[in-house]
Amino acid sequence: GTGADNDLYINQAIVFIEDAIQYRSINHRVDSKSLWLYRWYYSRTCQWILSLTITVILALAFIEKPSSLTITSDVRYRPPAWNPPCGLTESIELLCFLVFIVDVSVKSYLIGWEEFWKNKWLLAYILTLVVSVTDWIVSLSFFCTEDVRIRRILRPFFLLQNSSMMKKTLKSINSTLPEMASVVLLLAVHLSLFTMFAMLLFARTKDGQQDKEWVGYFRNLPDSLTTLLVLLTTANNPDVMIPAYSKNRAYSIFFILFTVLGNLFLMNLLTAIIYNQFRGYLLKSVQSSLFRRRLGIRAAFEVLSSLKETPANAQQSYVSVRALLQVLQKVEMDSRCKQAIMRSLKMCSCDQLSAAQFQKLFEELDKDAIKQHPPSPQYQSQFMQKIQFAFGHPCFGYLGNVVALANIVSICVVLVMDADKQPSERDDFFLGAINCFFILYYLLEMLLKILAMGLKRYLSYPSNRFDGLLTVILLVLEIATFAVYGFPHPGWRPEFMGLLSLWDMVRLVNMLIVFRFLRIIPNMKFMALVVTTLLDLVKNLRAFAGILVVVFYAFAITGIMLFKGAVVPMGNIRYVGNKHSTSWPFFNLSNFMVDLVLGGCRESQCDFVALFGHFQADVIYYLLYLLSVNLICRWAKIYFVAWWLISSVIWVNLFVALLLENFIHKWDRRCHREPLSDIEYQRTVELMFRDVLEEPTEEELMEKLHQHPHLQLCR
What we know:
The protein has about 725 residues and is mainly α. It has helices at about 1-20, 30-40, 45-60, 90-110, 115, 120-140, 150-155, 155-160, 165-200, 210-215, 220-230, 240-245, 250-280, 280-305, 320-330, 335-345, 355-360, 380-390, 395-415, 430-455, 455-460, 460-485, 500-515, 525-540, 540-560, 590-600, 610-615, 620-630, 635-670, 685-690, 700-705, and strands at about 320, 350-355, 370, 575, 580, 680.
């Protein structure tokens, strides 16, 4: 009936507007039951459950065998880690798989089966689930004793497929691969040529004493290639050239030429190519998001114009204001935007809205989020007004910065004077006394600012919240110190009492004081601009950081499986191929190598935390040591080189390119904006490029709407 049709149109408009707000595609089923399921799926509760499930299944690697639940990662001192019994983590995995099965089933149903077979991500999602469940069954059949678990490597896919921005980034990387491959090929040619030169230049001679360079670095082709590859990362510089340089200074020309051509030219050329390819990436992405938003709003207009209460018009469609108000009551959106749209509707004198008017109303979604600071209190007393003027003036803040600087200088002086003293020889009286004085000043400054600005206005500034929180913590620590150790006096070094010694308490206070000195940043215009820009970038580039997590996670899990049993406790004997070798001694370099590269592999266990958290470009340098003592086979070079190429060469340069593009746009925007003391603008990535985006035309929107697989328009 007419009432049922109107309810359906209202619900369709609600969903389309919510799609526009979240930049989602509108190509999904639009019948009543599907709309209810769609809103339920994208509700905060369901999305929170899905995010929690992804977090849980990724975090399982920290407690699965080999477990990372130890305080120290040193293989010599840490006790045997707790390993969960068979079936515990597998039960958690099964629950996660069930959530993912529901997730992919709902997604597949909502977009329709025809669209499902065109969606490569959903097909890959199902394939990943099938492989993971199969591997889970195999694991249980072997009572969790199998060495290789394929499903652990596949877990990052669940994080990847849940983010549209990550998918767009991977698509852009794929389009950039040909250009990157050309530079990587040039790097390979560079390495190969200099490897040949090195083998000829440092060839073996009759005098064994003069062959240190050949013995250590250029004995054969694989060793020579590995040595120069590590030199390209500068990890073994200048160690690699010391033997040759000691023999003849002219040999340094070879290493200088290699480093200049490789590092200064080719590596920076790769950065330039990646930046050039990604220079317009975010702009294209935001342009696509804008089109989705405009399409969602236009789809809502079209379905609302089909309401039976709307008068038919042969030339143009209209939407009644009453119907739009009914829709806005049920739409989940930011209260600021909803109130602004409703105010505009109430100010509008007409009862019907055209497509242009309807679209213009929702341009409120594209505006900056503005935070207006509360007003200062109005005092009647002239004395209080003078107090408010004095302590609300910027000069009072500058005075506080000078005092904070004096506090830092005094701490530096004391630390320099006590640098060579034994703990028993230190006298904490002076440092305790000056800290007490400065903390009292900080407390007084905070109270006076609250008096001048009012509590609400004071807390509305992030710098004040930061300053006030640290001041309260410092005050609590100082009171606790006095309660346990008494007031400062000459020779103030009482015995250890409570959780922390006096020196630990003083150090903690000093660290917080040093951290509090960051309060000067808002008072330095360009430094504040840089810092706030970087903070906004951190918040807006979470998708790219997510892909970094995916890369780290995949390589960490792969490393655990590859290097299982590579390092054994001191004194044990192990066999590598047909070669017999004793375990290598744990001196400083090798111990550092274990923590950084193999993460404390102990008796067939490789720790996930160390492999995940300590990867750096220097891992290739430690690869040389592993190979020299026969701890791993030479094919392991592929793993380390692949990690270096993907993380340090490609992904770091990609992240730098994205950072530069965002930073330049944000810098230009803020430098041309007039500063307003009581207003803060909060911008997202989508809003950063708003001024350079092209609005989609009427024809483009209607053509896309007519291609909707589940929506039939009347015109």
